[in-house]
Amino acid sequence: MSVYRVTEVIGASKTSWEDAAKEAIAVASRTLRDLRIAEVVEQDITLGENGTVEAFRTKLRLSFKYEQSAGAPEWEGAGAAR
Question: Residue 44: which domain range?
């Protein structure tokens, strides 16, 4: 059985939403191992005073697999003794 955690991250780029997503994944992958899914949740643009595009932002939900701690018992399901 596998268990996954989901966390949200936001990446920013001066060039595109795609680059913003890639940056968010690249930074998150430095501390999160075994990333499985990246789901785009929201995209927006930050604007300057003149209405010019300053940055593209992409919010992602990332899922990654929990690692079992050394010495921790295996999960036995809902009927496991407590």
Answer: 4-65
Structure confidence at residue 82 (pLDDT): 44
Phi (first) and psi of residue 58, to 5 degrees: -125, 125
Domain membership of residue 27 (yes or no) is yes
Give the mean pLDDT of 70-74: 63
Of the candidates 4, 9, 3, 5, which has an alpha carbon nearest to the alpha carbon of residue 41? 9
Domains of the chain: total: 1
pTM over 0.90: no
CATH number for position 16: 3.30.1660.10
Judged by DSSP in three states, 59 sits in strand
